[in-house]
Amino acid sequence: MEKGSVMDSTGEQSGDIQQRSYWRWSKQDFLPEESFQSWANYRCALSQTFFRFKDRLISRSEDSNEISELRKQSENNMKRCLNWWDLIWFGFGSVIGAGIFVLTGQEAHEHAGPAIVLSYVASGISAMLSVFCYTEFAVEIPVAGGSFAYLRIELGDFAAFIAAGNILLESVVGSAAVARAWTSYFATLLNRESNSLRIHTNLTEGYNLLDPIAVGVLAIAAAIAMSSTRRTSDLNWIASAVNTIVIFFVIIAGFAHANTSNLKPFLPYGAEGIFKAAAIVYFAYGGFDSIATMAEETKNPSRDIPIGLLGSMSIITIIYCLMALSLSTMQKYTDIDPNAAYSIAFQSVGMKWAKYLVALGALKGMTTVLLVGALGQARRYYVREMTPRKNLLMLVSFLLIIIASSMGTSAYWGLNPNGWVGYVITVPLWFLGTLGISVLLPQQRTPKTWGVPLVPWFPSLSIATNIFLMGSLGYKAFVRFGICTIAMLVYYFFFGLHATYDMAHQQHKPEPMKVKNEDTTGKAEP
Predict the structure, then answer these.
(1) Which of 210, 126, 172, 141 is nearest to 410 (CA)?
(2) Could you tell me which residues come within 8 angstroms of residue 274 by beta carbon, excluding any fewer than 6 positions away?
(3) CA angle, corner 94, sides to 115 and 174, nearest 5?
(4) So which domain of life are we looking at (predicted)?
(5) What is the DSSP letter of 33?
């Protein structure tokens, strides 16, 4: 992050205060709140867990608090140094990486076949609908907290913690996957097998390959991201520009060596395979939420964020579809290498030299994903105290109908992919729930500068498509999600809850009265 002058306790810039080092390990740095200052305080806090949870569940933050007050408490002020051009390239850098270079081959080989291009279309539409919503949030509340800040305002601390925890988990898992893919392509660049640079152990199959190179790449990317946002942007721009050249080469050279017979059969796994793959390759679009967290460092958020987010995602979706199609025409889906698909595909058509260029481009792409990912880790029909209770109840009812019908559609697809009777019930219910919001409920808030078009239809469609793709995931994904959520809840109830409670109530404490000079008797001078 770009560092400015340190702020004092009143929120004013104070140039005289020496900035503290990033590398700090004391208890006060990690647990500065009152509840953790002694074991007695902590036991007292734990005894009030239910009361504090209720307080945090019903309390809401304010726009002004997120935009102004919380920023004043930040130790380092963030400089507005990014424009829409930077954000477009950050979009490229954060999204184009392991997804297209790794997941395309994996999912074409295992689930979709040549129809992997349709999987990218489906997941791209779903991602774009989410991008519309993220864009409005980031423009309305241009702070570094991203979705955590938006949810604190609308749904409170608890919902914000769960969402932000899962986004952080996505970033951690995604970065780990990208780093491991980096090692595979680096091995290809050295003309070695994709797993040859990993340490083989006697652990369970699937967990028995240790990857020290991936750890080193992650550490370097994090160090660069911490050093400077501007420096990261410049490096990302250069690497993404090189990666873009490689991508155009892949598309052009791939189609030049196309064999249309490789597209037959186009749907080897049926429509079910398309959506199974779509749920996985949605990961390839992950990273756009990192751009939303950069709003606080953007010069003109109301102009730059919509152009940066929507512009980059539109172009990326087209690129993904063209790259997926070029891979499918070069090589039969049964022969595609899941680990280094493009490199091996070019080798199979006699362009052995091209695999090194593709591996280099993939490495650059995955490096920028790690850079922006490391940097990123660093509301509409209801307004509190304004919306009538009747309208609130109607809104909740319609939202439940939309969510339930979307879950029903996803469940019916999973149970009977070739059926149609269930959709006769679930799809009209979704339509009626959305129509009810559109016709019966007046909008309580109008976006100040930029808003999602076709509200509530686009947000409702975003809910439906995301739930549908989630339903296409295997049960193991939900088991892992449940385990991670339980771990997050344990942390929240033992630490996070008490930290946020202390912070919230510390903000509302009255300022201590300043006592005038006292004489030697201890009495204040008049």
Answers:
(1) 126
(2) 112, 115, 118, 119, 122, 267
(3) 75
(4) Eukaryota
(5) S
In contact, 404 and 429? CB cutoff 8 Å: yes
Q: Name the maximum alpha-carbon separation found in the chain.
A: 100
Give the pLDDT means over successive 10-residue stretches in the chain (526 positions).
Answer: 41 45 67 87 93 87 68 63 80 70 85 93 87 78 69 79 78 76 78 83 83 86 70 68 79 90 91 88 75 76 84 88 92 85 82 71 57 48 71 86 89 81 91 91 76 85 85 78 88 91 71 46 44
The answer to whether 433 touches 401, Cβ cutoff 8 Å, is yes
Distance of CA 58 to the CA centre of its chain: 26
For residue 93, the one-letter residue type is G
Can you tell me the distance from the alpha carbon of 218 to that of 250, in angstroms, rounded to the nearest whole number? Answer: 26
Strand, helix or coil at 1? coil
The predicted structure's pLDDT at residue 418? 78
* Res 44: pLDDT: 93
- Per-residue b or e along 66-98, where b marks 16 or more CB atoms closer than 10 Å to that residue's CB: beeebbeebeebbbeebbbebbbbbbbbbbbbb
Task: Count CB atoms within 10 A of the CB of residue 309.
Answer: 26
Cα–Cα distances (Å) from 167 to 87, 111, 220, 377, 484, in that order, read 20, 26, 22, 9, 12
Q: CA 71, CA 62: separation in Å to the nearest integer?
A: 13
Cα angle 322, 328, 334 (rounded to 5 degrees) comes to 155
Six-digit token string for 321: 């579809």
Encoded amino acid at 207, one letter = Y
Secondary structure (3-state) at 373: helix
Contact between 236 and 228 under an 8 Å Cβ cutoff? The reply is: no
**HSE-CB for 210 with a 13 A CA cutoff:** 7
Q: What is the pLDDT of residue 324?
A: 92
Distance CA 398, CA 455 (A): 14
135 exposed, middle or buried (CB, 10 Å; 0-12, 13-18, 19+)? buried
> In this structure, what token pair is assigned to residue 154?
């609308």
Amino acid, res. 77: N
In degrees, rounded to 5, the angle at the alpha carbon of residue 174 between the alpha carbons of residues 173 and 180 is: 90
Structure tokens that stand for 108 in this block: 């074409």
- Other CB atoms within a 10 A radius of the CB of residue 2 amount to 17
φ/ψ of residue 524, rounded to 5? -70, 140
Question: CA torsion sign, 467 to 470 to 476 to 481?
Answer: negative
Amino acid sitting at position 137: F
Rounded to whole angstroms, how far apart are CA atoms 475 and 410?
Answer: 13
Angle of helix 475-491 versus helix 157-189 axis, rounded to 10? 120
Q: What is the dihedral of CA 288, 293, 298, 302, to 10 degrees?
A: 70
* Residue corresponding to tokens 């058509």: 349
d(CA 255, CA 252): 5
